[in-house]
Structure formats: structure tokens, C-alpha cells
Amino acid sequence: MGPSDWISTGFALVAMLVSGVTVFYTRVQVRHAEEQVEQARRELNFAVHDSAFNLMLRMDELFLEHPMLRPHFYQDVAPPTPAADPELHHRAFAMAEFCLDVLECVWERQDKYSDVDREAWREWIHDVFAGSPVLRSLYGERQAWFPVLTSLRESRVCTAASGHSFFTDPAAPATPAGSAVPAATAAAEAAAAELAPV
Ligand SMILES: [Zn+2]
Fold first, then answer.
1. Residue 181: which region, alpha, beta or left (left: phi > 0; alpha: psi -120 to 50)?
2. Which domain range does residue 20 map to?
3. How many whole angstroms from 194 Cα to the centroid of ligand 1?
4. Is 104:63 a contact under the CB 8 Å cutoff?
5. CA 93 to centroid of ligand 1, rounded, Å
6. Does 37 lie in the same domain as 96?
7. Distance from the alpha carbon of residue 177 to the mean position of ligand 1, in angstroms
8. Could you say which of 14, 78, 122, 126 has the lowest number of CB atoms within 10 Å?
9. Is residue 61 part of a domain?
10. Considering its fold, how many domains does the chain have in total?
């Protein structure tokens, strides 16, 4: 092997070394970028959960401030008519609208939750619906306002043994038969009648 062969072999070795270092460095950079993406994903998940929990806590606070609303959201009790108790009637419908907005927001982020958390949030939404005739009634009247909840309902996915027929039975009406829930629109008409000049 002549001097020129030694030189070209040396160049080849240096080139291999440089290429090896480049590959190693690139891998380190890729690994670092992957770690950053994973960290950002964890932070996003935390923020998503944090805001979902904050919305749920706000609902809890409102029930603490207005405990008379609880039977209409936890014990499947229909609210009073506007004539019987106008304040509680309108408060129940206002709370139902707030709760539906919260549930819509919570489920809108469902693809950001882990499988375990997604199931927990889904069954919580099912439970809230199961305990509230006023919420089911308002949803039935204003279904177009809540496309995310509607897609959840249409999915029919549920892991509870029973009690969630509103989400599992395609034939389940938004407002159960025989329900004494006065419609929000009727309430609005009644309120308008009260304000109308005599
Ligand atoms: Zn369920």
C-alpha cells in the first residue's frame, strides 16, 4: 500500500468518524426533541384536566350556594312550575344550562384524556344526566346547542351496569314520559305574560 493509499484510507476513516459523530449528535437532538414534546404533552394534559376539574368545582360551589337545587340534579326530582315557585323554577333551568355547558366543555376535550380518565368523565356525565329531569328536558329542547354531548349520546358507549338508559337506549326520549318538567320555553312564555301590560 503506497502513501496515497494510506492518505485515502485516513480520509475514509475520518469521514466515517465524522459521520458516526453526526449520527450520534442527531440522535441526541431527536431524543431531546421527543422529551420536549412529551413534556409539553404532559403539561397540556395537566392543563386540560385542571380546567375540567375547575369547571366541576364551580358546579359544586353553585350547589353549595343554592342547596335547594340539589334534588333537581341529584335525586331526579322535577323542578316546580313557574306558578308554584318562579325563583326556583328559573334558577333550576339556569343551573341546567350552566351544567350542560360544563359537560359539553368537559367532553369536548375527551381525546386529551387517558383511557381511565375518559371513562371516569364519561360516566360522570351520564350520572349528572341520570339525576336531573330539568337537565334532560333542557337538553331535549336545545339539543343543537350541544353537539359534543349529542355525539357522546349517539356513541351509546357506557360501562355502568344500569341507570344510564338516556345514553344507552336509542329509544330513550330526552324527556321521560310522564315527566312533570315544565318546558323552558313555556317558562319563558309565562315570564313574558307576567311582564305583559294588563
Ligand atoms: Zn354510563
1. beta
2. 1-51
3. 41
4. no
5. 23
6. no
7. 21
8. 14
9. no
10. 2
Cα–Cα nearest to 89, from 196, 194, 197, 173: 194
The answer to whether the CB of 113 falls within 8 A of the CB of 49 is yes
Assess if residue 143 is contained within a domain: yes
- Considering the domain boundaries, does residue 57 fall inside one? no
Residue 56 lies in a domain: no
Do 131 and 40 lie in a common domain? no
Q: Output the pTM of the full model.
A: 0.71
Ligand 1 mean position to 162 CA, how many Å? 8
Backbone φ and ψ for 138, nearest 5 degrees, come out as -65, -40
Interacting residues of 49 by C-beta distance below 8 A, sequence separation 6+: 113, 117
How does pLDDT run across 31-44, given as a tens digit for each residue?
A: 887 788 778 777 77
pLDDT tens per residue, range 74-129:
999 999 999 999 999 999 999 999 999 999 999 999 999 999 999 999 999 999 99
Q: Are residues 36 and 76 in the same domain?
A: no
On whether the CB atoms of residues 137 and 184 are closer than 8 A, the answer is: yes
79 HSE (CA, 13 A, CB side) = 31
Are 70 and 1 members of one domain?
no
